Amino acid sequence: MAIDTLIDALPSYAKDLKLNYSSLIRQNTELTPQQLWGTVVVSAIATRNDALTAAALEEAAKHLSAQALEAAKSAAAVMGMNNIYYRFLHLTSNEKYATLPAKLRMNALRTHGVEHVDFELWALAVSAINGCGKCVDSHEKVVREKGIGEEQILTIVRIASILHAIGTVLDTERVVAAETAAV
């Protein structure tokens, strides 16, 4: 299903999400197409909602090169792992863990083949969705050092927040439909 069709079909209680999606995605002026659609992809993947992820991948394939699409998927994958690991280090009071090597392969952080700042923005979006403060702080610092301003950063985070909320609505509606069908 096309992502616009999916968004337009959201229930009335999600009207704010439709409006926000429209203003941020359909009327984007702050991000490059690669930054925008890579963020849509990583955010959809991070929601773990099948319909949203499929729609985002389908639409993004029209706007991203094959390499950029793979890099976005790679960002979602590696940050899904890193966010759990580094969030644990942040949350535990045992400081010993931070002195031990991670022993996790993170080659994707260097071998993605797209603009480094774009990959970092995507990593930031996934980290915001997954609630990893350590990763948010790290990736936000990198993109600011590379010249990305606070408005662009907040646009990335807004997109992540909207897509996360859309994924939640779609999950809710799937449950409601299943309950209705069972009756």
UniProtKB/TrEMBL annotation:
Disulfide feature: 132-135
EC number, as in UniProt: 1.11.1.28
EC primary class: oxidoreductase
Catalytic activity: N(6)-[(R)-dihydrolipoyl]-L-lysyl-[lipoyl-carrier protein] + a hydroperoxide = N(6)-[(R)-lipoyl]-L-lysyl-[lipoyl-carrier protein] + an alcohol + H2O
GO-annotated molecular function: disulfide oxidoreductase activity; hydroperoxide reductase activity; peroxiredoxin activity
Chain ranges of the Carboxymuconolactone decarboxylase-like domain: 97-172
Highest taxon above the source species: Bacteria
Pfam families found in the cross-reference section: CMD
Keyword terms, alphabetized: Antioxidant, Disulfide bond, Oxidoreductase, Peroxidase, Redox-active center
GO biological-process terms attached to the record: cell redox homeostasis; response to oxidative stress
List of catalytic residues: 132 (proton donor), 135 (cysteine sulfenic acid (-soh) intermediate)
Protein family membership: Belongs to the AhpD family.
Cited NCBIfam families: ahpD (TIGR00777), ahpD_dom (TIGR00778)
HAMAP family: AhpD
Function: Antioxidant protein with alkyl hydroperoxidase activity. Required for the reduction of the AhpC active site cysteine residues and for the regeneration of the AhpC enzyme activity.
Name of the molecule in the record: Alkyl hydroperoxide reductase AhpD
